[in-house]
């Protein structure tokens, strides 16, 4: 593992440009300037819908629904992924549903200025709202006959600068940056990994140096991104707890 030899009380403050969720729902918050990132995982049962972005002033909402493996090897952990996203632009009365199989929008036609969709078949969908909020949804195709896994989706924010200061949600709360400090790298429970103490949002957490894959550039293989992994469903990094972000429908705005 290619670790920095010494990390001494670095304070990061940034406005993130690139954050998203991909894989066994792995959230990545990238810090482009520092070539560093934060990451966490959310474990919850398939079917659950989480609010990712909610911004009342602009009327933009993004929710994601979790799907599981087709089958689980007895005694093994069930892997979960995002399988459906609901994107709402309340101001323009637009609802967009993206699943691994289809893209549906209502109304069937919309003004060019309010939403633009760019589809690359079997690969990705770029959604642009109000010319300046931009999301990328990536389709991960799994071999049809695979015994356990099924197709799933990744979600990335490409442009978030137009969101209001009230923007929230599992991802939205990081659009305007987050302050954290990392110090004291020490051997972790896993002998191949190192832990550190992180101070964030008034909490002191033990985090682990790890890697996550970012699929924005290379949809097939992804790119390894080193990140500070926050344990226990992002507890301490997230405002509240992860279950606070559960919503009852794909287009629900809490
Ligand atoms: C994450 O939360 C779920 C319940 O929402 C719980 O079952 C699971 O044990 C938690 N995982 C960790 C690592 O805290």
Automatic annotation (TrEMBL):
Per the UniProt record, the source organism is Sinocyclocheilus anshuiensis
The processes (GO biological process) annotated in the record are:
hyaluronan metabolic process
- Boundaries of every Inter-alpha-trypsin inhibitor heavy chain C-terminal domain copy: 58-232
Pfam families listed in its UniProt record: ITI_HC_C
Which Gene Ontology molecular function entries are recorded, alphabetically? serine-type endopeptidase inhibitor activity
The name of this protein is: Inter-alpha-trypsin inhibitor heavy chain H3-like
């Amino acid at each position: 593992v290619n670790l920095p030899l010494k990390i001494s009380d670095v304070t990061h403050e940034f406005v993130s440009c690139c954050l998203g969720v991909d894989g066994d729902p792995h959230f990545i918050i990238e810090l482009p300037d520092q070539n560093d990132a934060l990451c966490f995982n959310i474990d919850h049962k398939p079917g659950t819908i989480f609010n990712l972005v909610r911004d009342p002033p602009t009327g933009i909402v993004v929710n994601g629904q979790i799907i599981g493996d087709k089958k689980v090897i007895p005694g093994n952990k069930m892997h979960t992924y995002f399988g459906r996203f609901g994107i709402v632009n309340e101001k323009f009365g637009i609802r967009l549903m993206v699943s691994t199989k289809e893209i549906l929008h209502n109304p069937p036609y919309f003004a060019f200025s309010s939403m633009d969709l760019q589809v690359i078949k079997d690969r990705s969908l770029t959604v642009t709202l109000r010319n300046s909020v931009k999301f990328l949804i990536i389709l991960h195709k799994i071999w049809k006959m695979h015994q356990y896994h099924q197709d799933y989706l990744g979600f990335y924010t490409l442009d978030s600068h137009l969101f209001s200061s009230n923007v929230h949600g599992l991802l939205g709360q990081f659009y305007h940056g987050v302050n954290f400090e990392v110090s004291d790298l020490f051997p972790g429970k896993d002998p191949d990994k190192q832990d550190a103490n992180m101070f964030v949002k008034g909490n002191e957490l033990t985090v682990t140096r790890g890697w996550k894959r970012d699929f924005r550039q290379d949809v097939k293989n992804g790119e390894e991104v080193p990140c500070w992994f926050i344990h226990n469903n992002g507890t301490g990094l997230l405002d509240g707890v992860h279950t606070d972000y559960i919503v009852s429908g794909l287009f629900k705005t809490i």
